[in-house]
UniProtKB/TrEMBL annotation:
UniProt keyword annotations, A-Z: Amino-acid biosynthesis, Histidine biosynthesis, Hydrolase, Methionine biosynthesis, Multifunctional enzyme, NADP, One-carbon metabolism, Oxidoreductase, Purine biosynthesis
Gene: folD
Binding-site residues for NADP(+), renumbered to this chain: 165-167, 235
Reaction it catalyzes: (6R)-5,10-methylene-5,6,7,8-tetrahydrofolate + NADP(+) = (6R)-5,10-methenyltetrahydrofolate + NADPH; (6R)-5,10-methenyltetrahydrofolate + H2O = (6R)-10-formyltetrahydrofolate + H(+)
Top-level taxon: Bacteria
Function: Catalyzes the oxidation of 5,10-methylenetetrahydrofolate to 5,10-methenyltetrahydrofolate and then the hydrolysis of 5,10-methenyltetrahydrofolate to 10-formyltetrahydrofolate.
HAMAP family found in the cross-reference section: THF_DHG_CYH
Annotated signal sequence range: none
Annotated Tetrahydrofolate dehydrogenase/cyclohydrolase catalytic domain residues: 5-120
Name of the protein described by the UniProt record: Bifunctional protein FolD
Pathway note: One-carbon metabolism; tetrahydrofolate interconversion
Amino acid sequence: MPTILDGKATSKALQDQIAEETAAFVAQGGKKPHLAAILVGEDGASQTYVNHKVKACERVGFSSTLKRFPADITEEALLEEVEAINANDDIDGLIVQLPLPKHINVTKVTDRIRPEKDVDGFHPINVGRMTLGQPAYISATPFGIMKLLERYEVETSGKHCVVIGRSDIVGRPMSILLSQKGNPGDCTVTICHSRTKNLKEMTLQADIVVAALGIPEFLKGDMVKEGATVIDVGITRVEDASKKSGFRLVGDVDYAAVAPKSEFITPVPGGVGPMTIASLLYNTMQSAKKAVYSV
Ligand SMILES: Nc1nc(=O)c2c([nH]1)NC[C@@H]1CN(c3ccc(C(=O)N[C@@H](CCC(=O)O)C(=O)O)cc3)C=[N+]21
């Protein structure tokens, strides 16, 4: 049976650590970390995630501000809100919850966030610095996965890692982090996507598979080799009348078929998702401490 990479417990342990560090920082006269989140529209999943983030802030002793706007807010008005937070010295970190409505240019918005407050690590300056191995805010999901591999001492050096998905916020940064020098790191990385030919041939060679393509239960049992480490980034809500919420969360991995073959595996829920939250808090604390950018 595989070892389950328990993201929920690991996130909690990290949050306890962040709470301790925050208390010590504040006791020494430091400023209480303050995270601002912008939420546009009424998307149910987005509301849930943002609420999780705000609650997590409370838990570790941060201040938080949630700014909600209707789905028809103009791009210009949204950019002004970003500018206002950029200029607010009390706020250390700003996230604009994605996805945004179609009439808003996402890149324009995330590029407008000051890199020093971009705790999501989406700004080109942070992506560039991360890529070069310089101090940066690292995108929360890949960063959380690195922390999870570290916590369970998953051997990564020299391993072949296949990342499925090339998104700017998960697949691409994940491939870069895993190929960088260090532990975790030092992997040989292959990045696959919707145009990849013979995907199964690729995944069968993988010591570590990261499934981040957003198709429920895509990775089947016959696509992974015996003893692989499997990281499931997918989180899709599938209708389920038997649940109180009316839905259940399904990952990109066919867990029942893949788990018996794997050495390490992340569950959904309780795997990568909670680690994303811990990483965001970590980045916000770094910002309050001016540990990444000195200004
Ligand atoms: N600007 C921005 N930054 C993000 O980091 C960002 C975003 N937009 N948009 C959406 C995605 C998704 N995301 C998740 C965070 C936590 C869980 C999480 O805590 N999941 C729990 C369960 C959550 C539930 O109950 O629905 C789990 O997997 O166990 C999942 C997904 C952050 N994202």
